[in-house]
Amino acid sequence: FNVVFFGQTGAGMSSVINLLIGDQVADVSARMNSCTMDHRPYKLNTGMQQFLIWDTVGFNGMHNVYGYASKHATRLFHKLSQLGGIDLLVFCKKDGRLTPWELDSYMLFEEVLCKGQVPVAVVVTHLEFYDPMEQWWEEN
């Protein structure tokens, strides 16, 4: 199964991937610059299923202007189309209102590239200051 993580730079895509894998496999950074400059696959074997978890270039990064990130997203889509397609999209979103960059990246992956044919899961990150974290869902 191919699972593609996408979202705005700094949303925590690589951190969530590390959490799923159970190891520090994807580079993470708290700096303004993105550390994911190209899509990268990470293997996750649950014992019953094998997954390729794809980390992607974040949108709106200091060095990742929209054109750069969308070019890489399109390249990944075409690559995965030849390898059986995308089975799940995971949209990583930071706490707060939906930004134009987030909406653009969502539209690109979900509507333009995948034509609405791939399920999307949403992961909201940066909720550490909510006590309890579930409060965010109640308020939003």
Largest sheet: 5 strands, mixed
Q: Order of strands in the sheet with the most strands?
A: 2-3-1-4-5
* Structure summary, number of beta strands: 5
Output the helix-strand order. EHEEHEHEH
- Beta content: 15-25%
Describe the structure.
The chain is globular, with a radius of gyration of 15 Å. It has a five-stranded mixed β-sheet. The model has no long low-confidence stretch (mean pLDDT 85). The longest helix is centred in the middle third of the chain and has 17 residues, at 66-82. It starts with a strand and ends with a helix. Helix 2 (66-82) packs parallel to helix 3. The protein is built from four helices and five strands, in the order E-H-E-E-H-E-H-E-H. It has helices spanning 13-21, 66-82, 100-113, 135-139; strands at 2-7, 40-45, 50-55, 88-94, 120-125. The chain has 140 residues and is α/β, with parallel strands linked by helices.
Question: Any descriptors?
Answer:
alpha/beta; globular; five-stranded mixed beta sheet; 140 residues; 5 strands
Secondary-structure blueprint:
Layout: E1 2-7, H1 13-21, E2 40-45, E3 50-55, H2 66-82, E4 88-94, H3 100-113, E5 120-125, H4 135-139
Task: Briefly summarize what is shown.
The protein has helices at residues 13-21, 66-82, 100-113, 135-139, and strands at residues 2-7, 40-45, 50-55, 88-94, 120-125. With 140 residues, the chain is α/β, with parallel strands linked by helices.
